[in-house]
Amino acid sequence: MKSNSKEAATVKKPGWGKLLTLVGFAATFGSAVPVGYCIGVVNSPADYVKAWCKKSLLERYDSNITESGLDMLWASIVSVFLVGGAVGSLGGAGAANKFGRKGCFLISGLLFAVGAIMFFFCRMANSVEMLILGRLLVGLASGLTTASVPMYLTEIAPFALRGTFGVFCAVGVTGGVVVGQVFSLRDIFGTDELWHYAFSFYIVLVIICYLPSYIYPESPKYLYIVKNDRESARRELSRLRGADAEDIINQEIEEMEIESNAKVQTRTLGSVLKDPTLLLPLIIVCSFHGGQQLAGINAIFYYSVSIFEKAGLSKVNAEWANLGAGCLNLATSFLAPVLMAKVNRRPLMMFSTILCASFLFSIAFVLYYIDKASWLPIACIVCIMGYIFFYQLGLGPIPYFIGTELFEVAPRSAAMSMGSLASWTCNFIIGMAFPPLSNVWGAWVFLPFSITCVLLFLLTKFYLPETRGRDPSEVAPLVSKGFRSKVN
C-alpha cells in the first residue's frame, strides 16, 4: 500500500478543478464562516439584547426579572449555542454515515437558515424563546459542521491537496468570528434597533453558497467504502478530477479498494471506543480538539479589551484594537493552507504549542506586574499578538483535520465526531469557568492555558506520527499499540 500511495502522490498531482474549488469555497463560506460568525456576533450588542429580553419578559409575562436573573438568562442564550454544538458533534458520526458527507453539509445549511430566520423575527414576535431556539439550532449546525465538513473536504480533495483542504474549516471559523465582530459594531448593526440584523446577516452567505448545492459531489470515499456504490464513486471522481485524469482516478479507486477490503464495515461510535488499536489516535484527536480550546484563544479575546484599556486606550479604541487582534488572527490563518502543503505536521504543531505556552506564561507574568512599569502594557499587547500569530500556525488549524489523516474511512466519522465533541465541551468549560476564575486568580488564570500547550507539545513529540504525505492506512499501524507505539 505504501508504494501505491507514494505513486499516487508522485506520478501526477491533480490541481484545483472548477468543481473542487467551488465546493471548497462554498463549504468554507456557507458553513464554516457561519460557525465563527455566531461565536463573534454576540459580544458587542449584549447590553441591547439583554435590555430587549427584560422588556419582552415584562410585556409578555408581566415578569420583572432581576439583574442576576437577567445575567443568568444571557449566559443561557450564549451557552445554549455551545450545548447545541456538543450535541451536533455527538450526532455527527451517525449522520455522516447515514446521510453522507454532502448530506450533513446540506442539513447544517438548513439549520443555519432556520436559525437566522428565528433571529430576524424574534423581535417582531417579541419572543425570547425564539432567540434561544435559534441559538440552539445554529449550535447544532455548528457542531455538525465541525464534525463533518473537514472530513467532506479532505475526502473529495486529491492526495496532494488534502492538507490544504483540511484547514479550510479552521480558516472559515476564524474568519467568521471577525465578520461577526465587524457586523456587530455600533457603526453597522450593533445598535438597540438593529441587533437582530447582526444576528441573522450571515444568511446571505448561506443562500449564496447553498444555491448551487445540487451540483456538489458526494464524497467518493463515502460512496465506495461506506455505501459500496462503486459506480457512483467513480462518477463523482470523474467530475472532480476531470475526464482526462483516468490514471489518477484509477489510482484513487485502487487505494479505496484496498482500504475497503481491510475495513469492510462502517464503524459505530461504540466499536471505535472499544477498539484498543484506535485508543491512541482517538486520544490524540480529542486532546488536540479540546486542547485547542483549553489553550485559551477565546479567553484571550474575552480579556483583550480590558488589557488594551490598561494600555491607555479608550473603551471604543480598545474595542477596535480587539477587532485588530481578530484580524491578525484571520490574516495568520490564511497562511495555514500554504503551510499544510509544505510543512510536516509534527514540527509545526510542536513549534506552535511551545511558543504559545511561552507567550501565555509571559501574558500572566506581565499582567500581574502591569502597573509596575510604563512599558509593561505595551509588552502585554505584544505578547497577545505573538500568541495569536503562533496559535494560528499550528494549534489553530491542525486539530480540525488531523483525524482525517490518522483514521481510515470506516472509523473516521466516529473519531471526528468525538473530536468535535471534545472541542465544544472544552469551549463550554472555558465560557463558564474563565470569568469566575479570573476574578479569583487574577492574571495567573493564564497559567493553566500555558500548561495545556506544554502537554500538547509532549503528546505531539512522543505520540503523533508524521501524517503528511501518507495515506491513513500507512499511519494506522504506527499508533495501533496505544502508548507503547513508537512513532519516531
Keywords:
488 residues, mainly alpha, Growth Hormone, Chain: A, 2 domains
Gyration radius (Cα, Å) is 23 Å
Number of strands: 0
Distance between the termini: 20 Å
Give the oligomer, counting copies of the same chain as homo and different chains as hetero. single chain
Shape: globular
Q: What is the overall pLDDT average?
A: 87
Q: How many domains?
A: 2
Name of the CATH first level of the largest domain? Mainly Alpha
Given as residue ranges, the uncertain stretches (5+ residues, pLDDT < 50) are: 1-11
Task: Provide the succession of SSEs.
Answer: HHHHHHHHHHHHHHHHHHHHHHHHH
CATH architecture field of the largest domain = Up-down Bundle
Structural class: mainly alpha
| CATH-defined superfamily of the largest domain | MFS general substrate transporter like domains
Pfam families: Sugar_tr
GO molecular function, one term: hexose transmembrane transporter activity
Membrane topology: Multi-pass membrane protein
Keywords: Glycoprotein, Membrane, Transmembrane, Transmembrane helix, Transport
Structure write-up:
The protein is mainly alpha-helical and 488 residues long. The chain folds into 2 domains: 16-216, Growth Hormone, Chain: A; 264-487, Up-down Bundle (Growth Hormone, Chain: A). Helices cover 76% and strands 0% of the residues. The radius of gyration is 23 Å and the shape is globular.
